[in-house]
From TrEMBL:
UniProt protein name: Alpha/beta hydrolase
Listed InterPro entries: AB_hydrolase_1, AB_hydrolase_fold, Serine_prot/Carboxylest_S33
Source organism: Sorangium cellulosum
Keyword Phosphoprotein included in the entry's annotation: no
Family membership: Belongs to the peptidase S33 family.
GO MF assignments: hydrolase activity
Domain AB hydrolase-1: residue ranges: 26-283
């Protein structure tokens, strides 16, 4: 019996048309998002692997538990459970998963996944993701504010435009409103939010409580191929408020003493790196792969 039998998240494979992948990377979105948020960017990254790459990467866009099309997962709803979902996905796919990339909430899931597969992963990317407990991070209240807003919107919703106006009226940008609207679906009686907000609350509470710096700062020494191959990259938005100043300093100090880890800052980007500076992020990732 498969040790990881159980819930498997929805996913999509992204590859270059002319290059069969030799290894694969999981791509993990942030809270309230889905794998589709990264489809356009990752397709470009995959196509950059087509020419001359000796071991080209393929990418696995994951809808994390209770997001996108990965609905009705069993409890507990925790960061660790989301990482366990990825282990089951890898078993099911039978692909050689050698990397993980996580944005924001997905970054903490990526760290737990790294901890589970320390001897096997070759590339790890944290994209504007703070390993600190939520209380210690900057901009900590935004996700909680989004959750509160979504709970307050009466359902069914008359139209997508009504949803967008409700989000904008609460003080969020048009970009955030459009992103959240990806979770709004037409049903028989109107439009409804496809997220289980109770599960979102559980995931956010666990995310907020977790301190995962130990995965980066004091990992067991890898063995086998991972000892030579592993490279970690932290990419931060210069204008992002999601990373506490103390965490930025901690990343830089760690990179100074850990040769396997690099820190990159995109000066003009906020938290949404792939939207704020897609070319800058692409160049960092392409070079790192």
């Amino acid at each position: 019996m498969n040790a990881h039998a159980g819930f498997v998240p929805h996913h999509a494979l992204v590859t270059a048309p002319s290059a069969a992948p030799a290894r694969w990377m999981l791509v993990l979105h942030g809270i309230f998002g889905s794998g589709a948020n990264w489809r356009t960017f990752v397709r470009r990254l995959a196509e950059s692997q087509a020419e001359g790459a000796p071991r080209p990467w393929g990418f696995i866009l994951v809808d994390l538990r209770a997001h996108g099309m990965s609905q009705s997962p069993p409890a507990p709803h925790t960061v660790a459970a989301a990482a366990e979902d990825l282990l089951r996905l890898g078993d099911q796919l039978g692909l050689d998963v050698r990397g993980v990339m996580g944005h924001s909430f997905g970054g903490k899931v990526a760290l737990v996944y790294l901890e589970r597969r320390l001897d096997e992963l070759e590339r790890v990317f944290l994209l504007d993701s703070d390993p600190s407990p939520r209380e210690a991070s900057a901009g900590a209240s935004e996700s909680a504010s989004v959750l509160e807003l979504l709970r307050a919107i009466p359902q069914p919703i008359a139209s997508r435009e009504v949803f967008l106006e409700a989000v904008r009226s609460a003080g969020f940008s048009r970009g955030i409103a459009e992103w959240l609207a990806m979770n709004v679906r037409r049903e028989g009686d109107g439009f409804r939010i496809r997220l289980d907000l109770d599960i979102m609350s559980d995931l956010l509470a666990d995310y907020s409580a977790r301190d995962l710096w130990h995965v980066l700062e004091a990992p067991p020494k890898p063995s086998g191929a991972a000892r030579e191959e592993r490279r970690g990259h932290v990419v931060l938005g210069g204008r992002s408020t999601a990373i506490a100043p103390a965490s930025r300093e901690r990343f830089e100090a760690l990179a100074a003493r850990a040769p396997w880890l690099s820190v990159h800052v995109l000066p003009g980007a906020g938290h949404w790196l792939h939207a704020d500076d897609p070319d800058g992020l692409f160049e960092v990732l392409r070079a790192a792969l």
